[in-house]
Protein backbone atom coordinates (compact mmCIF):
# COMPACT_ATOMS: atom_id res chain seq x y z
CA UNK A 1 0.00 0.00 0.00
CA UNK A 2 1.34 3.46 -0.88
CA UNK A 3 2.14 5.62 2.16
CA UNK A 4 -0.42 8.25 3.00
CA UNK A 5 0.30 11.92 2.37
CA UNK A 6 0.33 12.90 6.09
CA UNK A 7 3.13 10.40 6.67
CA UNK A 8 5.12 11.74 3.74
CA UNK A 9 5.08 15.36 4.94
CA UNK A 10 7.50 14.90 7.90
CA UNK A 11 9.85 12.85 5.71
CA UNK A 12 9.90 15.55 3.03
CA UNK A 13 10.56 18.29 5.60
CA UNK A 14 13.40 16.26 7.12
CA UNK A 15 14.93 15.62 3.70
CA UNK A 16 14.80 19.33 2.83
CA UNK A 17 16.40 20.25 6.16
CA UNK A 18 19.19 17.73 5.70
CA UNK A 19 19.77 18.94 2.13
CA UNK A 20 20.01 22.58 3.27
CA UNK A 21 22.34 21.84 6.22
CA UNK A 22 25.23 20.03 4.56
CA UNK A 23 28.36 20.05 6.73
CA UNK A 24 31.57 20.52 4.78
CA UNK A 25 35.01 19.40 5.87
CA UNK A 26 36.58 22.29 3.98
CA UNK A 27 34.77 25.33 2.61
CA UNK A 28 35.29 28.79 1.13
CA UNK A 29 32.24 31.04 1.47
CA UNK A 30 32.31 34.47 -0.17
CA UNK A 31 30.06 37.54 0.16
CA UNK A 32 30.88 39.80 -2.81
CA UNK A 33 29.70 43.36 -3.55
CA UNK A 34 29.31 44.90 -6.99
CA UNK A 35 32.60 46.79 -6.61
CA UNK A 36 34.53 43.56 -5.98
CA UNK A 37 35.01 44.03 -2.24
CA UNK A 38 33.58 41.63 0.28
CA UNK A 39 34.12 39.04 2.99
CA UNK A 40 35.38 35.47 2.91
CA UNK A 41 34.95 32.73 5.48
CA UNK A 42 37.21 29.68 5.33
CA UNK A 43 36.42 26.65 7.46
CA UNK A 44 38.24 23.32 7.52
CA UNK A 45 39.94 20.65 9.51
CA UNK A 46 43.56 21.56 10.34
CA UNK A 47 44.98 18.78 8.13
CA UNK A 48 43.01 20.14 5.15
CA UNK A 49 44.36 23.62 5.81
CA UNK A 50 47.79 22.01 5.59
CA UNK A 51 46.97 20.06 2.42
CA UNK A 52 45.27 22.92 0.55
CA UNK A 53 46.86 26.11 1.89
CA UNK A 54 50.22 24.92 3.17
CA UNK A 55 49.44 26.07 6.71
CA UNK A 56 51.35 24.07 9.32
CA UNK A 57 53.11 20.77 8.77
CA UNK A 58 51.84 17.37 7.64
CA UNK A 59 53.49 15.74 10.65
CA UNK A 60 51.45 17.77 13.16
CA UNK A 61 48.70 19.75 11.45
CA UNK A 62 46.64 20.27 14.61
CA UNK A 63 49.64 21.64 16.47
CA UNK A 64 50.87 23.88 13.65
CA UNK A 65 47.71 24.98 11.77
CA UNK A 66 46.51 27.16 14.63
CA UNK A 67 44.50 30.33 15.08
CA UNK A 68 47.65 32.41 15.38
CA UNK A 69 49.27 31.06 12.21
CA UNK A 70 45.98 31.38 10.29
CA UNK A 71 45.58 35.03 11.31
CA UNK A 72 49.14 35.82 10.24
CA UNK A 73 48.58 34.05 6.91
CA UNK A 74 45.54 36.20 6.06
CA UNK A 75 47.04 39.45 7.30
CA UNK A 76 50.18 38.78 5.26
CA UNK A 77 47.89 38.45 2.22
CA UNK A 78 46.44 41.93 2.73
CA UNK A 79 43.09 40.95 4.27
CA UNK A 80 41.53 42.45 7.39
CA UNK A 81 40.85 39.57 9.76
CA UNK A 82 37.54 39.84 11.54
CA UNK A 83 37.51 36.61 13.55
CA UNK A 84 39.50 33.43 14.04
CA UNK A 85 38.05 30.52 16.03
CA UNK A 86 38.64 26.84 16.63
CA UNK A 87 35.44 24.81 16.93
CA UNK A 88 34.68 21.11 17.23
CA UNK A 89 32.18 18.93 15.43
CA UNK A 90 31.73 15.29 16.40
CA UNK A 91 34.97 15.52 18.34
CA UNK A 92 37.02 16.85 15.40
CA UNK A 93 38.61 20.33 15.34
CA UNK A 94 37.72 22.89 12.65
CA UNK A 95 39.66 26.09 12.09
CA UNK A 96 37.53 29.09 11.03
CA UNK A 97 38.74 32.44 9.66
CA UNK A 98 36.58 35.40 8.57
CA UNK A 99 38.27 38.31 6.76
CA UNK A 100 37.43 41.33 4.59
CA UNK A 101 39.04 42.20 1.26
CA UNK A 102 38.94 45.26 -1.00
CA UNK A 103 39.15 43.52 -4.37
CA UNK A 104 38.42 39.87 -4.99
CA UNK A 105 40.66 39.95 -8.07
CA UNK A 106 43.70 40.63 -5.89
CA UNK A 107 43.30 37.44 -3.88
CA UNK A 108 44.96 35.43 -6.64
CA UNK A 109 48.51 34.38 -5.85
CA UNK A 110 48.40 35.50 -2.20
CA UNK A 111 49.73 33.17 0.53
CA UNK A 112 46.20 32.68 1.91
CA UNK A 113 44.77 31.48 -1.42
CA UNK A 114 47.25 29.23 -3.23
CA UNK A 115 44.32 26.90 -4.01
CA UNK A 116 42.05 29.52 -5.60
CA UNK A 117 41.96 31.44 -8.88
CA UNK A 118 39.10 33.93 -9.01
CA UNK A 119 38.09 36.94 -11.09
CA UNK A 120 35.19 39.40 -11.28
CA UNK A 121 34.84 41.56 -14.40
CA UNK A 122 32.32 43.75 -16.20
CA UNK A 123 30.76 42.60 -19.46
CA UNK A 124 28.30 45.21 -20.75
CA UNK A 125 25.46 45.42 -18.25
CA UNK A 126 26.53 42.21 -16.52
CA UNK A 127 29.10 41.17 -13.94
CA UNK A 128 30.94 37.93 -14.68
CA UNK A 129 32.43 35.76 -11.94
CA UNK A 130 34.78 32.99 -12.96
CA UNK A 131 37.53 30.92 -11.42
CA UNK A 132 38.91 27.57 -10.33
CA UNK A 133 39.63 25.87 -7.04
CA UNK A 134 42.36 23.23 -7.07
CA UNK A 135 44.87 21.81 -4.65
CA UNK A 136 48.33 23.30 -5.21
CA UNK A 137 50.69 20.80 -6.85
CA UNK A 138 53.36 21.36 -4.19
CA UNK A 139 51.00 20.93 -1.23
CA UNK A 140 51.86 18.60 1.62
CA UNK A 141 50.82 14.95 1.35
CA UNK A 142 48.63 13.76 4.20
CA UNK A 143 49.38 10.12 3.58
CA UNK A 144 45.78 9.00 3.20
CA UNK A 145 44.38 10.98 6.15
CA UNK A 146 41.36 13.26 6.09
CA UNK A 147 39.77 11.94 2.90
CA UNK A 148 36.16 11.68 4.09
CA UNK A 149 33.34 14.16 3.57
CA UNK A 150 32.77 17.03 1.15
CA UNK A 151 34.48 20.31 0.31
CA UNK A 152 32.86 23.34 -1.32
CA UNK A 153 33.24 26.84 -2.72
CA UNK A 154 30.13 29.02 -2.30
CA UNK A 155 29.25 32.60 -3.26
CA UNK A 156 26.67 35.09 -2.02
CA UNK A 157 26.50 37.37 -5.04
CA UNK A 158 25.39 41.03 -4.96
CA UNK A 159 22.68 40.87 -7.63
CA UNK A 160 20.32 38.56 -9.44
CA UNK A 161 22.07 35.60 -11.07
CA UNK A 162 21.18 35.24 -14.76
CA UNK A 163 23.30 32.15 -15.49
CA UNK A 164 25.88 29.91 -13.84
CA UNK A 165 28.34 27.18 -14.67
CA UNK A 166 26.78 24.00 -13.30
CA UNK A 167 26.30 25.16 -9.72
CA UNK A 168 25.50 22.10 -7.63
CA UNK A 169 22.15 23.31 -6.26
CA UNK A 170 21.48 25.85 -8.99
CA UNK A 171 20.66 29.35 -7.76
CA UNK A 172 19.58 29.42 -4.13
CA UNK A 173 17.43 32.31 -2.84
CA UNK A 174 18.07 34.31 -5.98
CA UNK A 175 21.77 35.05 -5.52
CA UNK A 176 23.62 32.11 -3.92
CA UNK A 177 25.60 29.60 -6.00
CA UNK A 178 27.99 26.87 -4.93
CA UNK A 179 30.17 24.05 -6.19
CA UNK A 180 31.31 20.99 -4.25
CA UNK A 181 33.07 17.67 -4.55
CA UNK A 182 34.32 14.78 -2.46
CA UNK A 183 37.26 15.66 -0.25
CA UNK A 184 39.08 12.56 -1.49
CA UNK A 185 38.76 13.80 -5.10
CA UNK A 186 40.08 17.22 -4.04
CA UNK A 187 43.09 15.63 -2.32
CA UNK A 188 43.77 13.64 -5.49
CA UNK A 189 43.99 16.86 -7.50
CA UNK A 190 40.39 17.22 -8.66
CA UNK A 191 39.37 20.81 -9.33
CA UNK A 192 36.21 22.86 -9.27
CA UNK A 193 35.50 25.25 -12.15
CA UNK A 194 32.95 27.87 -11.19
CA UNK A 195 31.31 30.83 -12.87
CA UNK A 196 28.19 32.98 -12.92
CA UNK A 197 26.71 36.02 -14.66
CA UNK A 198 24.72 38.56 -12.72
CA UNK A 199 23.33 42.07 -12.99
CA UNK A 200 25.38 45.12 -12.08
CA UNK A 201 22.73 46.56 -9.78
CA UNK A 202 22.94 45.47 -6.16
CA UNK A 203 19.95 43.56 -4.81
CA UNK A 204 20.26 45.52 -1.56
CA UNK A 205 20.27 48.86 -3.40
CA UNK A 206 17.30 47.83 -5.55
CA UNK A 207 15.39 46.64 -2.49
CA UNK A 208 16.08 49.84 -0.54
CA UNK A 209 15.10 51.98 -3.55
CA UNK A 210 11.86 50.06 -4.03
CA UNK A 211 11.09 50.27 -0.32
CA UNK A 212 11.76 54.03 -0.28
CA UNK A 213 9.55 54.53 -3.35
CA UNK A 214 6.76 52.57 -1.67
CA UNK A 215 7.04 54.72 1.48
CA UNK A 216 7.00 57.96 -0.54
CA UNK A 217 3.98 56.74 -2.50
CA UNK A 218 2.13 55.87 0.71
CA UNK A 219 2.96 59.26 2.23
CA UNK A 220 1.73 60.99 -0.94
CA UNK A 221 -1.58 59.11 -0.80
CA UNK A 222 -1.95 59.93 2.92
CA UNK A 223 -1.21 63.61 2.31
CA UNK A 224 -3.78 63.74 -0.51
CA UNK A 225 -6.41 62.09 1.68
CA UNK A 226 -5.75 64.54 4.53
CA UNK A 227 -5.98 67.51 2.15
CA UNK A 228 -9.30 66.33 0.72
CA UNK A 229 -10.67 65.66 4.21
CA UNK A 230 -9.60 69.14 5.38
CA UNK A 231 -11.13 70.80 2.33
CA UNK A 232 -14.40 68.93 2.75
CA UNK A 233 -14.48 69.81 6.45
CA UNK A 234 -14.16 73.53 5.68
CA UNK A 235 -16.92 73.33 3.09
CA UNK A 236 -19.24 71.50 5.52
CA UNK A 237 -18.48 74.05 8.27
CA UNK A 238 -19.38 76.95 5.97
CA UNK A 239 -22.67 75.30 5.01
CA UNK A 240 -23.56 74.68 8.65
CA UNK A 241 -22.86 78.33 9.49
CA UNK A 242 -25.26 79.50 6.77
CA UNK A 243 -27.95 77.13 8.03
CA UNK A 244 -27.62 78.50 11.58
CA UNK A 245 -27.94 82.18 10.41
CA UNK A 246 -30.47 82.25 7.55
CA UNK A 247 -30.85 86.08 7.59
CA UNK A 248 -27.24 86.66 6.83
CA UNK A 249 -27.91 86.59 3.10
CA UNK A 250 -31.69 87.40 2.92
CA UNK A 251 -33.30 90.57 1.31
CA UNK A 252 -33.51 93.75 3.41
CA UNK A 253 -36.39 94.05 5.89
CA UNK A 254 -39.49 95.43 4.17
CA UNK A 255 -40.24 97.63 7.19
CA UNK A 256 -36.97 99.45 6.89
CA UNK A 257 -36.55 101.96 4.18
CA UNK A 258 -33.86 101.25 1.76
CA UNK A 259 -31.15 103.60 0.72
CA UNK A 260 -32.53 106.81 -0.80
CA UNK A 261 -36.11 106.04 0.19
CA UNK A 262 -36.41 108.12 3.34
CA UNK A 263 -37.05 111.41 1.45
CA UNK A 264 -39.54 109.72 -0.80
CA UNK A 265 -41.47 108.49 2.19
CA UNK A 266 -41.63 111.88 3.70
CA UNK A 267 -42.61 113.51 0.41
CA UNK A 268 -45.48 111.17 -0.19
CA UNK A 269 -46.80 111.29 3.33
CA UNK A 270 -50.46 112.38 3.25
CA UNK A 271 -51.20 116.03 4.24
CA UNK A 272 -53.47 116.54 7.23
CA UNK A 273 -56.48 118.95 6.68
CA UNK A 274 -58.96 120.41 9.09
CA UNK A 275 -62.21 118.56 9.25
CA UNK A 276 -64.29 121.68 10.01
CA UNK A 277 -66.75 122.59 7.27
CA UNK A 278 -66.33 126.05 5.67
CA UNK A 279 -68.89 128.67 6.76
CA UNK A 280 -71.08 130.00 3.90
CA UNK A 281 -70.61 133.66 3.12
CA UNK A 282 -73.84 135.72 3.37
CA UNK A 283 -74.60 139.35 2.41
CA UNK A 284 -72.90 141.91 4.58
CA UNK A 285 -74.95 143.17 7.42
CA UNK A 286 -76.51 146.61 7.02
CA UNK A 287 -75.27 149.30 9.36
CA UNK A 288 -77.54 150.26 12.10
CA UNK A 289 -78.91 153.80 12.04
Short description:
With about 290 residues, this protein is α+β, with helices and mostly antiparallel strands.
List keywords for this structure.
single chain; 289 residues; alpha+beta; 2 domains; 6-stranded mixed β-sheet; 4-stranded antiparallel β-sheet; 7 helices; elongated
Sheet with the most strands, sense and barrel status: 6 strands, mixed
The number of helical segments is 7
General shape? elongated
Number of domains: 2
Q: Tell me the number of strands.
A: 10
- Cα gyration radius (Å): 48 Å
Bin the helical content.
Answer: 25-40%
> What is the structural class?
alpha+beta
Mean pLDDT: 81
Strand order of the largest sheet: 3-4-2-1-7-9
Q: How far apart, in Å, are the first and last alpha carbons?
A: 173 Å
Instruction: Tell me the strand percentage band.
Output: 25-35%
Note down, in words, how this protein is organized.
- The chain has helices spanning 5-20, 46-53, 61-64, 67-76, 183-187, 203-244, 262-267; strands at residues 26-32, 38-44, 80-89, 92-101, 116-123, 126-133, 150-156, 161-164, 176-182, 192-199.
- With 289 residues, it is an alpha+beta fold.
- The protein folds into two domains: 21-201, no CATH class; 202-233.
- The strands form two sheets. A six-stranded mixed beta sheet has the order 3-4-2-1-7-9. It has a four-stranded antiparallel beta sheet with strand order 5-6-10-8, with no helix packed on it.
- A hairpin with a 5-residue loop joins β1 and β2.
- The termini are far apart.
